[in-house]
Amino acid sequence: MSDKLVEAAREGRKSAYAPYSDYRVGAALRSDEGSIYTGCNLEVVNLTNSLHAEEVALSEAVKEDVSEFDALAVSTQDGGTPCGMCRQTLAEFCEPSLRILVDSIESDEVDEFTLAELYPAGFSEISSF
Ligand code: THU
Ligand code: ZN
Q1: Distance CA 100, CA 128 (A)
Q2: Residues 97, 115: contact at Cβ < 8 Å?
């Protein structure tokens, strides 16, 4: 099951549009029901507007009204982990127990974390909201 999720992240990475950094990222998010939503990074010339693979995968799921997730796989050449912005975004929609599989294509190794491990004590709420 996890292997299938990593495969989906690698497959998603093939669609990356990263002409500026040449750093392609694929993500695959699995719902509790077993559906898989994939994403890739999309760069824009001003760079700030670029979308991260994890955000794209999450938006694919949210648009289908899916809100319960058990695992995310992220695939890059060198095993890069989700950035801080993505960790905060994941914390919005996923439980701290979310499994995060970090795939390195060059070493063919997958490191496993939980969201809580990667993003402890994240920002949660402003009481007046
Ligand atoms: N990137 C992601 O897609 N996810 C992350 O969490 C880290 C960074 C992308 C953004 C940019 O297109 C490229 O990787 C290099 O930063
Ligand atoms: Zn990110």
Answers
A1: 32
A2: yes
Catalytic residue among 54, 60, 112, 117: 54
Quickly state the pLDDT bin for 1 (edges 50, 70, 90): very low
* 33 part of the active site: no
- Ramachandran bin of 65, using left for φ above 0, alpha for ψ from -120 to 50, beta for the remaining angles: left
Q: What are the pLDDT digits (tens) for 28-84?
A: 999 999 999 999 999 999 999 999 999 999 999 999 999 999 999 999 999 999 999
- Which residues, 6 or more positions from 47, have their beta carbon under 8 angstroms from its beta carbon? 20
Task: Give the Cβ contact number of residue 63 at 10 Å.
Answer: 9
The closest residue, in CA terms, to atom 14 on ligand 1 is 23
Instruction: Compute and round to an integer the Cα radius of gyration of the chain.
Output: 14
Domains of the chain (ranges, CATH numbers): 2-118 (3.40.140.10)
Q: What is the pTM of this model?
A: 0.95
Amino acid, single-letter form, for residue 124: S
